[in-house]
From TrEMBL:
Alphabetical list of InterPro entries matching this protein: Cell_wall_metabolism_enzyme, Csd3_N2, Dup_hybrid_motif, M23ase_b-sheet_dom
Short name of any one Pfam family annotated for the protein: Csd3_N2
Stretches assigned to the M23ase beta-sheet core domain: 343-438
Domain Csd3-like second N-terminal: 218-331
Keywords carried by this UniProt record: Hydrolase, Metal-binding, Metalloprotease, Protease, Zinc
Obligatory cofactor(s): Zn(2+)
CDD domains: M23_peptidase
UniProt keyword Transport present: no
Compartments, as annotated in UniProt: Cell envelope
Transcription listed as a keyword: no
Primary location recorded for the protein, binned into one broad class: other
Protein name: Uncharacterized protein
Length: 471
């Protein structure tokens, strides 16, 4: 028994079979790109020529086109029907498509109907009143006045800052000649309070929603790097807070001394509302690790930046007490024009027109304001650190004894009282009771907190240092 095809010797095959077997062993389509000129190549070229000749012989004649049938062009109603279902390019007019005429169910309108309600948003601008803003948004004068009265009863209208947005809903009106009625209004009056107005019948009703606020400060620390300002801004600290930090640190040493390896420490007032908003406030703590020196400054209630120990060094210069100043007599020995002999002139005389306002050159307290011999009307003001300034020959006073004044505040008016040859201001500066030249005078004093203020200050410092960075 045998499996598969039986083996047949070549000698037993017929002549035709032997030729077929021999032809199958020949490669009739060799690669014409290789062995060019060989017997196999010429055999392949002959095969290619034979195939091309066969294709030419069997192909239809080129001179005679192939006939086909074309549909007859449409006309009349058939053309219109086909065009109505076609899509024409815009360049051809695009006037295709089927249109249906209106039937009896279609009623023509005299005018387009209005929306039943409208959602609008009003924005308070600089110098805007709330009533004007609401009327500009489309409310009637009566609705605007009613809304202003209700809101004013909840919060002072002055607390509504510019840029605040007021979303509102206006209802349907009987005709286009009257304003739409106010249906609802929402107003974020304060960070912790939201007001809403809603119409109930013909009356607007106010409701208050108190928003829970978290007052945990924000603490941010980082490396100074190539620029303190850029590094702090890249950490997300507002520009105004960075500027406050630089001013505070600059009171201790020059900003140019800060190195790239130093580390800054900010504690900023922050409020977080339960609704998700965050409000960044003022700088509370300014810290800097400068090499082995650690600087920690905290701003107290008087606006002064104190060290963590409760001390603050104040440095500065006095500004001229009158504008457009012209010094007529300098500090030092001089011949007195009225007494007729040479003596020490303890201040400088500034020529001014009668009644010129006199401004405080720095913060201080009025020690005395009254008559004082040859000085005439006289003011004496203490600035701390055993520094006192005096002002003579005034025409009248704008301050009183014991009053606390700020830099630039008017304390009196120049005149010609006392021993004086004409309207002017006599200005003296005393340090420790000794007269010094007021021109170019610079001062330095140390303020120290004590008692209850010191205890409250240290408690504030401890609370700020306990804030975790990034919390």
């Amino acid at each position: 028994m045998s499996f598969g095809r039986a083996f047949v010797p070549v000698a037993e095959l017929g002549t035709l079979d032997r030729l077929r077997a021999a032809a199958m062993r020949i490669d009739w389509v060799p690669d014409l790109g290789s062995r060019i000129g060989s017997l196999e190549w010429w055999r392949g070229a002959a095969t290619c020529a034979a195939l091309c000749a066969t294709a030419v012989v069997l192909a239809p004649p080129i001179a005679y086109p192939i006939l086909g049938s074309a549909p007859a062009p449409l006309s009349g109603s058939d053309r219109d029907e086909a065009r109505a279902q076609a899509i024409a390019p815009l360049a051809w007019g695009a006037d295709t498509g089927r249109h249906m005429a209106a039937n009896d169910l279609v009623v023509p309108l005299a005018e387009a109907p209005e929306r039943p309600i409208e959602e609008r948003t009003a924005t308070i601008g600089h110098g805007d009143s709330l009533g004007a803003v609401l009327q500009r948004a489309g409310l009637s004068e009566r609705d605007a006045q009613d809304a202003v009265v209700l809101i004013a009863g909840a919060v002072p209208l002055g607390d509504l800052t510019a840029g605040k947005q007021i979303p509102m809903t206006l209802g349907r009106r009987p005709n286009k000649t009257v304003a739409r009625p106010l249906e609802a209004l929402a107003l974020r009056a304060r960070f912790d309070l939201e007001l809403s107005l809603k119409r109930v019948g013909d009356t607007l009703v106010l409701s208050r929603q108190v928003i829970a606020i978290d007052n945990t400060p924000l603490r941010i620390q980082g490396l100074v790097g190539s620029s303190l300002y850029r590094s702090a801004r890249a950490a997300g600290i507002p520009a105004k807070v960075v500027e406050s930090y630089i001013r505070a640190i600059n009171s201790k040493f020059a900003i140019g001394q800060i190195g790239s390896g130093d580390r800054y420490d900010f504690v900023i007032d922050r409020k977080r509302a339960a609704t998700g908003e965050t409000q960044i406030g003022n700088l509370l703590f300014a810290g800097l690790d400068h090499g082995s020196k650690k600087t920690q400054l905290v701003q107290w209630n008087d606006g002064t930046w104190y060290e963590a120990t409760g001390q603050a060094e104040r440095q500065g210069t006095f500004t001229m007490p009158v504008s457009m100043a012209r010094v007529t007599s300098s500090f030092g020995m001089r011949f007195h024009p009225l007494l007729g002999f040479t003596r020490m002139h303890k201040g400088i005389d500034i020529g001014t027109p009668w009644g010129t306002p006199i401004h405080a050159p720095a913060d201080g307290t009025i020690v005395y304001a009254g008559r004082s011999g040859g000085y005439g009307n006289y003011i004496k003001m203490a600035h701390g650190g055993n520094i006192v300034t005096c002002y003579g020959h005034l025409s009248r006073f704008a301050s009183r004894s014991g009053q606390r004044v700020s830099r630039g505040q008017i304390i009196g008016y120049s005149g010609n009282s006392g021993l004086s040859t004409g309207p002017h201001l006599h200005w003296e500066v005393l340090r420790g009771g000794v007269a010094v030249n007021p021109r170019g005078f610079s001062f330095s004093s140390i303020a120290t907190l004590s008692g209850e203020q010191l205890r409250a200050f240290k408690a504030k410092v401890a609370g700020l240092l306990a804030v975790k960075p990034g919390a």
